[in-house]
Design goal:
With about 300 residues, the protein is α/β, with parallel strands linked by helices. It folds into 2 domains: about 130 residues, 2-Layer Sandwich (Nucleotidyltransferase, domain 5), CATH 3.30.420.40; about 160 residues, Nucleotidyltransferase, domain 5. The protein is built from 10 helices and 12 strands. α1 packs across α2, α3 crosses α10 and α7 crosses α8. Keywords: Transferase.
Length: about 300
Amino acid sequence: MENCAIGIDIGGTRTKVGLVDLSAGKVLETLIFSTETKNARRFEQGIGDAVHDIQLKANEMGVRVSGVGIGVSSFVFADGTVDSTYGFMEFMEDYPLANILQKQHDLPCRIDNDARLVALGEALYGEGRGADRVLVLTLGTGLGIGLVVNQQLDGKLPYGHMGGHITVIQNDIPCYCGKTGCLESLVSASGIIEAAKRGKWQEKNPEVAFTVESIFKSAESGNALSISIMDDFISHLKTGIGNYTNLYAPDKIILGGGVAKGLKPYLPRLKEDILLGPYKRYETCIVLSKLEEHAGILGSAALFNPI
């Protein structure tokens, strides 16, 4: 296990840190803790402690760590500076995250957008292996997008990571980006909850926990309001997939994130009638992630992959 790196996936609620065997595509050790979103010092301390602990584990295994790769939900520039998480992390504006961690641990540090790195993990080690063009939609609190071409991230900087904000419908549902009718505001966990609130789902189902999972389950059980919410969700997601298909011409589309876990019964509806293929005899397939939460750790560590 000479080719190992630390991968860090910084989420809006949880941060996942792992030691990754890059040759095998295997997460050897993991640490998961709550993401500090308000205080930079506490954030740096939490990340620093986790990296230190993982390094100790690596030393016990006799493994050399080649570097630390990090995925974060924002714009990331070539020098490792993070800019604009749209208020999700209050201190992360023009924030020199790579330099901070490199000084803490005397290890090379590389950073990219989290959704792009999830896509890299899927393309190298998950359902995207063997495909030339892999598009990954991460359906979680928001909507993340990543494209990998021939096992490499498409483009050096994540300027396209706001691709979830394509307008797919005219409505009055505001998105944090300032627009309305964004795909992200319709197919994310937040969007599903907002649709349920507007339909007074909680008042009509007071005995059930008000969660995305509960809405999915009640739709499968025949709850009329939940079925309506899911019908709209699938319709919007299908529109988005059709648009991305024509933009990116992926050989494989992978759906990941917490919301995707409940989509298995709906895959046939997403696959049918994808409009206007980008070229003659074009074919693609839509699958669910099997890496799930490990995708971001693997993709972040893969910033040190020699491939």
